[in-house]
């Protein structure tokens, strides 16, 4: 450290105080927002306690959301990351304002471990997400602080590290308790899965319905952990379809009971699939050799991730091949590889029409999905199924998506169009 440089200790202490006040301000404002999420509501002067409790429960239920990519406010997150990380990096690593001391390191630790996670958690999402996301942000901020703060300014960093370790240990204990509950109810899950197979035609939809019936709790917050099991279902599907489904054939449909339609034969998607597998194999070898020059451990970690990605690509095609769209008296059952799956009852279907939108316009329609596979050049999707209202379907890893239309391109397009029309008229 430069002996001619001295810090204003009082200014450093003021910096810490200001940051702590900012933390308490964020928490207090958020708690106020939780209590009265809509300030324009007209409430009685002296409402009964039961009314207050009911309103608070409803507001909490409406604000709590599953973690999904659509719920992320990307612009705000990028702004907050730039405002907090960049100045601290310039001060700590580049030392643009001169050598740093322990008090400045404490300010950076407060920024990265407390303020940044709180700001991202409270303002980085359009709806409130699980508190586990906040724990992940805190852990990420701690790792960032340990990397960013130099050794001559990390005297207070150990306190943050110990505190976060205690918090994360509590989270792990909670997760182990939930895992014990899952293991205990696993036989019930298998029983419900076999039952759901009689009503649904695809693995992911059957398993998701079994999860819903097996792990439904009175406490709505516990039901959020169904998403963890749906993520596990995607992993199970990836392993099964990529390694153990090669001798399987398309499940037979009883004539007259239902109709099945494939959508992978009429097109050049098989060529795209072979090209992706070929490219991934070459990438696995090349990246492993390149990374191994620096670290053998890192090389095998990267190779493992690449192999897992390759299994996903193979599993997706196998799932498409073995999971045709099924139309029966109840509705439309579909599973597009391991990317999307769902069920749409006929009561939710308004009609099927010829699609007049271009491929680009279809891709820009955020309230829809397409049951179509393309080659290197995308082809026009011939039909669109309009829905009477929003319908929830599941995407990869069990994330939700709300759709209002379904674009379809089947191998037997005209027959599919007539069959859907006949079911709608019933």
From TrEMBL:
<feature type="transmembrane region" description="Helical">
    <location>
        <begin position="267"/>
        <end position="291"/>
    </location>
</feature>
<feature type="transmembrane region" description="Helical">
    <location>
        <begin position="155"/>
        <end position="178"/>
    </location>
</feature>
<keyword id="KW-1133">Transmembrane helix</keyword>
<protein>
    <submittedName>
        <fullName>Uncharacterized protein</fullName>
    </submittedName>
</protein>
<feature type="transmembrane region" description="Helical">
    <location>
        <begin position="131"/>
        <end position="149"/>
    </location>
</feature>
<feature type="transmembrane region" description="Helical">
    <location>
        <begin position="199"/>
        <end position="215"/>
    </location>
</feature>
<keyword id="KW-0812">Transmembrane</keyword>
<keyword id="KW-0472">Membrane</keyword>
<feature type="transmembrane region" description="Helical">
    <location>
        <begin position="77"/>
        <end position="97"/>
    </location>
</feature>
<feature type="transmembrane region" description="Helical">
    <location>
        <begin position="103"/>
        <end position="124"/>
    </location>
</feature>
<feature type="transmembrane region" description="Helical">
    <location>
        <begin position="297"/>
        <end position="315"/>
    </location>
</feature>
């Amino acid at each position: 450290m430069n002996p001619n440089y001295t810090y204003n200790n009082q200014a450093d202490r003021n910096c810490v105080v200001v940051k702590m006040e900012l933390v308490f301000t964020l928490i207090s404002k958020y708690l106020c927002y939780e209590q009265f999420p809509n300030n324009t509501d007209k409430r009685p002067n002296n409402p009964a306690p039961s009314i207050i409790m009911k309103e608070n429960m409803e507001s909490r239920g409406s604000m709590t959301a599953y973690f999904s990519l659509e719920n992320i406010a990307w612009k705000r997150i990028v702004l907050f990351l730039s405002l907090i990380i960049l100045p601290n990096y310039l001060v700590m690593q580049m030392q643009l304002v001169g050598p740093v001391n322990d008090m400045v390191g404490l300010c950076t630790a407060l920024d990265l471990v407390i303020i940044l996670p709180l700001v991202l958690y409270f303002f980085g999402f359009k709806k409130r997400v699980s508190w586990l996301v906040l724990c992940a942000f805190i852990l990420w901020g701690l790792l960032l602080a340990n990397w960013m703060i130099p050794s001559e300014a990390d005297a207070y960093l150990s306190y943050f590290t110990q505190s976060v370790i205690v918090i994360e240990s509590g989270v792990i204990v909670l997760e182990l308790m939930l895992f014990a509950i899952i293991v205990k109810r696993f036989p019930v899950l298998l029983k419900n899965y076999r039952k759901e197979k009689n009503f649904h035609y695809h693995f992911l939809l059957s398993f998701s319905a079994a999860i819903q019936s097996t792990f439904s709790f009175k406490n709505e917050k516990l039901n959020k952990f169904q998403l963890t099991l749906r993520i596990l279902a995607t992993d199970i599907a990836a392993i099964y379809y990529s390694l153990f489904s090669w001798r399987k054939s398309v499940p037979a449909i009883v004539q007259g009971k239902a109709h099945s339609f494939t959508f992978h034969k009429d097109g050049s998607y098989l060529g795209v699939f072979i090209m992706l597998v070929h490219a991934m194999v070459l990438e696995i070898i090349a990246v492993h050799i390149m990374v191994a020059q620096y670290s053998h451990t890192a090389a095998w970690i990267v190779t493992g991730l690449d192999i897992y990605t390759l299994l996903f690509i193979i599993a997706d095609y196998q799932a498409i091949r073995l999971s045709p769209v099924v139309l029966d008296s109840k509705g439309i059952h579909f599973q597009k590889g391991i990317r999307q799956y769902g069920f749409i009852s006929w009561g939710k279907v308004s009609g099927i029409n010829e699609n007049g939108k271009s491929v680009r316009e279809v891709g820009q329609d955020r309230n829809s999905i397409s049951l179509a596979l393309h080659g290197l050049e995308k082809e026009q999707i011939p039909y669109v199924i309009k829905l009477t209202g929003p319908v929830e379907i599941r995407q990869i890893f069990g994330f939700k998506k709300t759709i209002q239309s379904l674009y379809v391109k089947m191998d037997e397009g005209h027959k599919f169009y007539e069959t859907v029309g006949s079911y709608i008229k019933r």
